[in-house]
Amino acid sequence: MPNVPPLLRNISGFFEKPPDLMNDWEIGGTQNKWVCPSDRHLQLRAQLKSGWSVRTAAARSPTNAAKVQPSAISDAEQEQIRKVLERVEESRQREQQRIGKMVDRLDKMRKRATGNGVTHCLLCHTEFGLLASKSYAAMCTDCRKYVCQRNCGVETVEPKTGELIFLCKICAESREVLWKKSGAWFYKEMPEYVKPEIAASQPGPSSPPGAWGGPSSSRNGSVRRLLPTPPSTTPDRNTATPRPRIQPSWVKEKVMTSMSVEEDDHSSSESEFVASGVVRRKKDPPTKQITQARREANLERFAQITSNNLSESEESSSPASSRSGSPRRSLATPSSFDSAHVGGPNPIPRHPSQTPTHSSTPANAGGIPHEAKSGNEDARSIDSGVVQSDHSNPVAAMTLSVSSLAPLAASTQDAQSRKLQSRQGSCDSRRVSNESTPRRDSADRENSGSRNSIGRESTRVTTSVSGSSLVTPPPLAMNQRRESPLDIRKLSISSGSTKRAGTSTDSMNIIEAIRFTNNARADSPGAAFMSSPDDDSKQHGARRNALARGSKARPPPTRALSDRDPTRQLSQDDEGGNPAPASLVQASVRRSASGLEPSLVASPVATRAATPLSDEIASTSTTRPPLEPGTLGSIQFNITYKQEQKQIVVHLIRAKNLRAMDKNGFSDPYVKLHLIPGNAKATKLTSKTIEKTLNPEWNEELTYHGITEEDRQRKTLRVTVLDRDRIGSDFLGETRVALKKLPSNEIKKFNLYLEHAIPIQQDKKEGVTEERGKVLVGVQYNIQQGSLFVFMKRGSELVGMDKSGFSDPYCKVSLTPITSKAHRQKTAIKKRTLNPEWDETLPFIVPFKDLPKKTLQIAVYDHDVGSRDDYIGGIVLSTSAKGERGKQWIQVIENPGQTFEYWHRLELDS
Amino acid sequence: MARTYDYLFKLLLIGDSGVGKTCVLFRFSDDSFNNSFISTIGIDFKIRTIDLDGKKIKLQIWDTAGQERFRTITTAYYRGAMGIMLVYDITNEKSFENIKNWIRNIEEHASQDVERMIIGNKCDMEDRRVVSRDRGQQLSIEYGTKFMETSAKLNHNIEEAFYTLARDIKGKMERGQGQTVGVGGTTGRYQQDSTIAAQGNNLCKNRHTFHCDFIAF
Question: Could you tell me which residue ranges the FYVE-type domain spans (chain A) (predicted)?
Answer without folding.
Answer: 115-176
